[in-house]
Amino acid sequence: MTRPLVVVSDLRHAYADGQTALHGVSFQVGSGDRLAIVGANGAGKSTTLLHLAGCLLPQAGSVRVADLLLCRENLSQLRRSVGMLFQNPDDQLFMPRVFDDVAFGPVNLGLPADDVQQRVMHALAVVGATHLSHRQPHRLSGGEKRAVAIASVLALSPAVLLMDEPTSSLDPASRRQLIELLQTFEQTLIIATHDLDMVLDLCPRTLVLGEGRIIADGASAVILSDAALLAAARLEQPLRLQACPVCSGAARRPSPPPGR
Ligand SMILES: Nc1ncnc2c1ncn2[C@@H]1O[C@H](COP(=O)(O)OP(=O)(O)O)[C@@H](O)[C@H]1O
Ligand SMILES: [Mg+2]
What we know:
Blueprint: E1 4-14, E2 20-30, E3 34-38, H1 45-52, E4 60-65, E5 68-69, H2 75-78, E6 82-85, H3 98-108, H4 113-126, H5 142-154, E7 160-164, H6 172-183, E8 188-192, H7 196-202, E9 205-210, E10 213-219, H8 220-223, H9 227-232
Parallel strand pairs: 3-8, 3-9, 6-7, 7-8
Antiparallel strand pairs: 1-2, 1-4, 4-5, 9-10
Helix pairs in contact: 3-4, 3-5, 4-5
The structure holds adenosine-5'-diphosphate and magnesium ion.
């Protein structure tokens, strides 16, 4: 691994109602790496991301991003290094126009108007949403909302991009478009997801969480082929690895000539 950009050590978290979400989670992510965090509902994926985004502070253990320890005093500095795409774009988009939503972060950084304009137009262009800049965010389709939410994060130029179930509720074409877009990103990506086929396409490394603990951490190709491990984590193998004749392309292969 390249020098770790994110270092999570023995992170523990219990919510106010006493529900323990993380029982001591440790992992590191190098600069430019792409890590998938998978696990059944309630495994602790979102709680992990919320710490990395500085929305939750460690109750025990520690989180470091770009050598900065996550604590109350460092919060505003740390939040400049990370951008979080929330599971529901409606939690992220709240301004009357798309342009203003994408500009919100840069404006809050106190950047000059020219700079803000340039960042917004660049971020919208990256996600292919320049034509939406004057639209009302709540009137967009699911895929359009997701693209604009990504632009609003990109406009802050974060070193680490956190994404919570980015393909959930997208139609197949929008999902494919999003995966292709993310493949072009050079930032460090940490993606919590149930979309294991996307993981195969996008993330060389996978961390499997189960009931707030790390069950496995390794190469996605190895982890996603391990049916027993996935079953223990209440997950299913990606369709592409399930020997399905349609997904694997076998159904389209011509039969060998007789006698061979
Ligand atoms: N705001 C909350 N209050 C109390 N418990 C919560 C809260 N958010 C999550 N939890 C609990 O913490 C555990 C981990 O949840 P979460 O991190 O959301 O898992 P995942 O994202 O993998 O589905 C679950 O048991 C869940 O019920
Ligand atoms: Mg979640």
